[in-house]
Write a structure and sequence with these properties.
Elements: E1 4-5, H1 13-16, H2 29-38, H3 41-50, E2 76-79, E3 87-90, E4 108-110, E5 124-128, E6 134-136, H4 138-141, E7 147-154, H5 173-176, E8 179-188, H6 189-196, E9 204-209, E10 216-220, H7 221-227, E11 229-234, E12 237-238, E13 248-250, E14 263-269, E15 284-285, E16 291-292, E17 301-306, E18 317-326, E19 332-338, E20 346-347, E21 349-350, E22 360-368, E23 373-381, H8 390-397, E24 410-413, E25 419-422
Parallel strand pairs: 5-14
Antiparallel strand pairs: 1-22, 2-3, 3-4, 5-6, 7-8, 8-11, 9-10, 9-14, 11-12, 11-13, 15-16, 17-18, 18-22, 19-20, 19-23, 21-22, 23-24, 24-25
The chain binds ligand MTE and molybdenum atom.
Molybdenum atom binds at residues 109, 155-157, 256-257.
């Protein structure tokens, strides 16, 4: 029997008192309300809440910050002890809602730190196999028509702890948080390709960043024509330094490493550059011993962010299952949820509008009966791709995998309400 309910359950008066929120440590409504009524606590709680009305508040600020009570919502950092600028910081997916990642919480992946790029001296060069080499300063780029799109960026190495023999017990963000979604605004690269007059034999572009790693990667010109953006703005403001100020390449749906930050050079050629980031790294070692190179698109993926590892359910009752789904091939067509480890599935609601190569937020009403359960979600995209089970992913890719891990994630809810990561 399915334990998923119609989401209208949340609106029905009769059930309201048995609702429990899935947030860590939150009291189920029923319990909270009876406690409130039981004591004279009610008056006490009121006067606390109203204390702020007895004195003048803070003055205006030039740039807003999160509430002082939200200080724990941060990116955790995992960096190289010898070279602090080499590593990652994770988006705390378990603490966020909706589909837009706050700019200050967008995950970071740098190979050699964040460079200090002076916008007044910045130039973008397009050269190589072109009829007319082009050089732009920022003012020049900003004269072109702009386009805004909500696009996720995911590191090819995201979720790679999924390859471990034992399920890693960490919050969802510290495991799967090398993915974020922003509104990127910039110049569609297509406009500039025609202006430069790309040689028909030039099938590749080598993109180079201004960081000390001088990151270089190869990108097929066909992708640049299709939907690449030279991004100047992120969530309405100019890019953050960490995410590529003043200019980065955004390649919707493709692995993060190609989306070169602090972009200053595009060289058109008839072959890839074969740099470290596309030979030694970001390639897939297959069971046959051969490696697959140029695995560009991030596959369909989803995960339940609430309840998730480290959170605790309160009393049995109705909970909203909340999560994220995305696919680098296109838009999320369907998300299904299971509470019995994948034996039976129920279709989740997706908040609209659903956009291509963008996060989708899904929700489902689940009645927890207080017994152990295994929660899972499974995404399908509009190109017919389905998020694989872990068993299928391992069967296809073997045990030497490291990149592009997109298997179904399982959270076991124990009878005491604790939630942990399991392989199911
Ligand atoms: N110049 C430059 N571009 C880069 C990188 C880098 O180290 N240097 N890291 C790449 C990798 S591996 C990823 S996953 C994304 C991360 O983008 P973000 O830090 O904005 O999240 O940037 C890519 N672009
Ligand atoms: Mo990456």
């Amino acid at each position: 029997m399915s334990t998923f309910l119609d989401r209208r359950v949340f609106l029905e008066q009769g059930l309201r008192l048995s609702l429990a929120t899935a947030a860590a440590g939150a009291l189920p409504l029923a319990q909270a309300q009876s406690e409130e009524r039981s004591a004279d606590k009610m008056g006490e709680m009121r006067s606390d809440a109203l204390a702020s009305q007895h004195k003048a508040g803070q003055a205006f600020s030039n740039y807003g910050m999160p509430s002082v009570y939200e200080k724990r919502v941060i990116r955790l950092i995992g960096s190289n002890r010898m070279v602090s600028g080499n590593g990652v910081s994770w988006t705390p997916l378990e603490s966020l809602e909706g589909i837009v990642t706050p700019t200050g919480l967008h995950f970071e992946r740098h190979h050699n730190g964040v460079p200090d790029v002076d916008p007044a001296r910045f130039e973008l060069l397009m050269h190589g196999m072109v009829a007319r080499p082009l050089r732009f300063d920022l003012a020049g780029l900003l004269r072109y028509p702009l386009q805004s799109r909500l696009i996720f960026i995911e590191c090819g190495g995201n979720s790679n702890a999924g390859w471990h023999e034992e399920p890693m017990q960490k919050p969802v963000g510290s495991f799967h948080g090398l993915v974020s979604c922003s509104e990127w605004t910039g110049v569609p690269l297509n406009y500039l390709l025609d202006e430069a007059g790309i040689d028909s034999k030039a099938t590749w572009a080598i993109a180079e960043g201004l960081d000390a790693a001088a990151t270089e990667v190869s990108i097929p010109v066909s992708k640049l024509r299709e939907d690449a953006l030279l991004a100047l703005y992120q969530n309405g403001e100019r890019l953050r330094a960490e995410n590529g100020y003043p200019l980065r390449l955004v390649l919707p749906g493709w692995e993060g490493v190609r989306q070169v930050k602090w972009l200053h050079r595009l060289e058109f050629t008839d072959q890839p550059v074969m740099s470290r980031n596309e030979t030694g790294e970001y390639t897939q070692l297959l069971p046959s011993g051969k490696a697959e190179q140029f695995d560009f698109v991030m596959g369909p993926k989803s995960l339940i962010t609430s309840p998730s590892h480290g959170q605790t359910l309160g009393l049995p009752g109705v909970y909203e299952i909340r999560g994220l789904a995305w696919s680098g091939h296109g838009s999320v067509a369907k998300v299904e949820v299971s509470a019995d480890g994948g034996q039976s599935w129920s279709t989740a609601h997706i908040d609209g509008p659903v956009m291509s190569k963008c996060f989708a937020r899904f929700r489902a009403a689940w009645k927890w009966n207080g017994k152990p359960a295994v929660l899972q979600s499974r995404a399908k995209d509009d190109h017919g791709n389905i998020q694989p089970t872990r068993a299928r992913l391992l069967a296809e890719r073997g045990r030497n995998g490291y990149f592009h891990y997109n298997a179904i994630v399982s959270w076991a809810v124990d009878s005491d309400g604790t939630v942990r990561h399991v392989y199911a």
